[in-house]
Amino acid sequence: MRFAIAPSLCRHVLCRHCWPRLHFGRLLSSSASVPWHCPQSVTATTSTNNFSACRYSSQAAAVAPENYEFQAEINSLLGIVAKSLYSDQEVFIRELISNASDALEKRRCSELQGDAAEATATLELRIEVDEKGKKLTFVDTGIGMSRDELVNLLGTIAKSGSKAFRADEKNAAAAEAIIGQFGVGFYSAFVVSEKVSVTTRKLGEEIGHIWSWNGGTHFTVEEKPDADIGTKVELHLKAGEAEKFAVPQKVVDVINKYSYFVTAPIFVNGERINVTRALWTMAPSETTPEMHETFFKQLAKTHHPHLADDRPQYTIQYQTDSPINIRALFYVPTKRVSHLEFAADSQRDIAISLYNQRVLIKPNAKELVPHYLRFLIGVVDSEDVPLNLSREMLQTDLILEKIRKTLTERCVRFFLSQLSKDRVKYNDFYMGYSMFFKEGVVTEQSNTTKEEIAQLLLFESSSSRPGTLTTLSEYVERMQSDQKNIYYIYAPSRQLAETSPYFELFKDKYEVLFLSDPADELVFLSMPQFHMKSLQSLEKWTKEEGLSIDSDKESSAELMRDSSKKEFLGWLRDSLGTVRVSDIKPSGRQSEHPFMITISADMGAARHMLRITEIKEMEHLVMLRPVLHVNLSHPVVAGLMRLKRQNAELATEIAIQVYENALCTAGLLKDTSKMVGRLNKIFAELLQLNAEKSQILTP
């Protein structure tokens, strides 16, 4: 099917002879190739069977209503536009409000340029809801339409007057406020209407016109001498489901959802609806904390009702016109997010709405920021966002990627500035939102991005007092000149970390970061380096360097010259079994720990595997192949050596318990349920032995 947008073959673009034939006859029918010549010299007539002469002729006079007939192909196209393009009936209200907003903005621009010949009117849109008559009326005091524009814009699908307005260089100052793009929004009213009429008079013209469609294959245009400047659209709603829009509150709900922030005042049956300004379009200097708190509550009520009484602890506002037009406003709630809420939030829609010139396009626009920033509540407005015709779906486009990248960088930069500006406030924020940043480091693919997010993380350090937090950047600044790695250790608390055999072996060398959250360890595993420094756990250092120190080798060799100790290690290997240990090595280092575990794999990765997988008892030990390092100079080991000669069974139970203590210290004990029972058994036997010994010694 051939189709042309607003064509003209004669010098009178909207000649009443040319237009109906061009638009609904010759160019959309099988006879499209038949030449057409405009009969401009034909004598004017009001016959209902003939077209009158071109109205640009000096002989043209007042005429009767003109009746235009849609071709079958046009009816089909209208059906597609009206019924298939818009997924929800309610969007016709949004589209008509957008059209009215554009008309009001055009009038404002015209008056500023001094083109208006009449007194300035109050720029507003009034919607009248007639419940009894099942009718909706949209009345704006905008620039209105001429007869030519009526026929051209309402009679030509995909002819956008707003797009043409923006393209005109003299309207550059007002272009940002113009919403329309595609010229199809008006036809969304056909979804719910059986009759549509448009009464309008353009600013500067004396005579108005009425465009009418009664649901058939015709529409008419006639003069309306007493029409007011502006446009009135009357919709007679279809019976059935469409009648729900003949209720004022329903109309208000749709306005609140889509069009609350359009510039023009909107009234429904005389009551002002949109009283809150679109703060994201205002300069930061024009807004106040009270305005932001009110706006935050309004957004929270829509997206997260449980935060409706909260207030923002951070406000992020960003505006730019180059290279992409962006108006963004984000809030961080004051209420902390628990781990349970964090897990639930991962399945929840993001609370960021996308607008295009203050008209809602998508309420949960997950495309605009990465998933780890889903704690933000706010809006993004961009006239450059690529939309489809219905303005309901985003088109995949590089512009979206650029917006996402820009907003992400601005948010990370903002939090870095707050980290430097007010450390106390940032620490409080971090306690409630650190999980999101950690998720970002783990889930982002780029190492550069990982490092950028990691700058926001905080940890305790061996060089600072308990409770004092430091950043990775600050750690790097304090590194010694001969230090190549960033060292860390994971433990549920700082106290446990400081009593760890791995920390004991390392503590006098370099500064160590204490990781107390399992997610911290996953962060370090997923990030190979930070500022060109490798991240190394103390367990890995112990396995690769700590146990190979000369003094430890010499002590071990000297101890193994004692045959009784060599025999003890053989007994210990048999008692524990090859599943629990793949090897046993002696150590003569002075330490508070009798046993220490190392494994061939990264211990942090092993701990993470144990957390997320369902592995039966002992199976994980087969995979990990632990190496047991025995401190032969420790009193517990010396006691075991004596006890195995007196009570081998009890000695075996104690050896297994001390071995599991070492597993627990390393974070590799999968099942702790048997430990309590074993300990009770050991205590009972020891107490019994002590009682028997007391009886022997008693005279």
From TrEMBL:
Q: Does the keyword ATP-binding apply?
A: yes
Q: Which CDD domains match?
A: HATPase_Hsp90-like
InterPro entries attached to this UniProt entry:
HATPase_C_sf, HSP90_C, Hsp90_fam, Hsp90_N, Ribosomal_Su5_D2-typ_SF
* Chaperone as UniProt keyword: yes
Keywords from the UniProt entry: ATP-binding, Chaperone, Nucleotide-binding
Q: Name one GO molecular function term.
A: ATP binding
Binding positions for ATP? 95, 99, 140, 145, 159-161, 181-186, 231, 391
Q: Which Gene3D superfamilies match?
A: 3.30.230.80, 3.40.50.11260, Heat shock protein 90, C-terminal domain, Histidine kinase-like ATPase, C-terminal domain
Domain of life the protein comes from = Eukaryota
Q: Which SUPFAM superfamilies would you find in this protein's record?
A: ATPase domain of HSP90 chaperone/DNA topoisomerase II/histidine kinase, HSP90 C-terminal domain, Ribosomal protein S5 domain 2-like
NCBIfam families given in the database record: PRK05218.1
**Family under the similarity heading:** Belongs to the heat shock protein 90 family.
> Which protein, by its recorded name, is this?
Heat shock protein 75 kDa, mitochondrial
